[in-house]
Specification:
With about 120 residues, this protein is an all-beta fold. Helices cover about 0% and strands about 55% of the residues. The two termini are about 25 Å apart. Pfam families: Cupin_2.
Length: about 120
């Protein structure tokens, strides 16, 4: 077993798409998806951009204001996530700052309560 400290990963700042106070630390990749730890400083923004693949942002600490193609803003907190479809233009803001995990790529993401992987039977 290995333990990961997502808060201790080396992060690099990102300013694309008008982003500010935004940094990422990559910690996993497969042929179909990549995994990154994300930090947004208080008042930080991940600017509007299209999702490369299906994408999920899961808040680990703090709070996010997220929107998709329809521009409706929703607030999510620890243990909650937002899913964007391939090509969907989206944005994430955090008035108070946050730490999150993003997985993006060829993903099957079920609805709440839906079991995507039946596991061992």
């Amino acid at each position: 077993m290995r333990l990961l400290d997502l808060t201790g990963l080396p992060h690099r700042p990102i300013d694309a798409h008008g982003s500010r106070g935004f940094s990422v630390g990559a910690f996993g990749i497969s042929a179909d998806a990549h995994l990154v730890a994300v930090r947004l400083e208080p008042g930080g923004v991940i600017g509007r951009h299209p999702a490369v693949g299906r994408q999920i942002l899961v808040v680990l600490s703090g709070e996010a204001e997220v929107s998709g193609a329809e521009l409706t803003v929703s607030r999510i907190g620890p243990g909650q996530g937002a899913v964007w479809e391939p090509g969907e233009v989206h944005e994430t803001r955090s008035p108070g700052g946050l730490t999150a995990m993003i997985v993006e790529g060829d993903l099957d993401i079920g609805a709440p309560g839906e079991q995507v992987d039946p596991g061992d039977v």
